[in-house]
Amino acid sequence: MQPKPKPESLDDLLVNAEHYANFSMRNMGRMPPTLFLIGANGSFMFIPDNLADTQAKDDFATTARLMCIAHAATVAVMALEVWMKCAKPGEKLDMTEPPSEAFDRQEVIVLMGKARDAQKQKFLPIIRSGNGKFFGFGESDVPDGIDQMKGRFAQILPPKIVDEQMRAVAEAMLTVKGITPAKIRSGSKRPRFKM
After folding, report:
1. Taking the model in full, what pTM does it have?
2. What 8-state DSSP symbol labels residue 71?
3. pLDDT in tens, the chain (195 residues)
4. Which of 155, 181, 175 has its CA nearest to residue 46?
5. Where in the chain are the domains?
């Protein structure tokens, strides 16, 4: 799987997000939460400094939404390393138990993609070796066709096309929050943003 240098579609952006997830897991052993987007001025990615607590998670979700508005995003993919639990066949999922506390939890990278006309998710089960190091991704047993994701990191793309005034307001809010383009590494023309 090769990344797309100039992603133009939801499928292209999902390929890039999966490539980055593989790169991150192999090099760091973890996947930082990352927003990928295609907007009026090309493709971007945004990685928060940390997600240490609930407030930081809420702030990242808000900032990701502002990024999508400020850049008039038409496609967005949120990539997160999460704990997941699934109901066994014929059983109902216990919604009272957090996945992070479930005995039968599974560590996965979830890619939640949204375009104006489509929505796709991909689950990449993480396989670790006996010493806890990343070994690779397994096959997902999550059925295709999940039509809705819920939570603070879902529905990041604005439901309507934003106008220039909304973009200017979002850009100002990002500036106040201290979100600026990171320095572009040589050979890379796509800016990353930092807080």
Report:
1. 0.82
2. T
3. 677 778 899 999 999 999 999 999 999 989 889 999 999 888 888 888 777 888 888 899 999 999 999 999 999 999 998 888 777 778 787 777 777 777 778 889 999 999 988 889 899 999 999 888 899 888 877 655 555 566 677 778 888 888 999 999 999 999 888 886 653 333 444 445 444
4. 181
5. 10-80+111-122+145-194
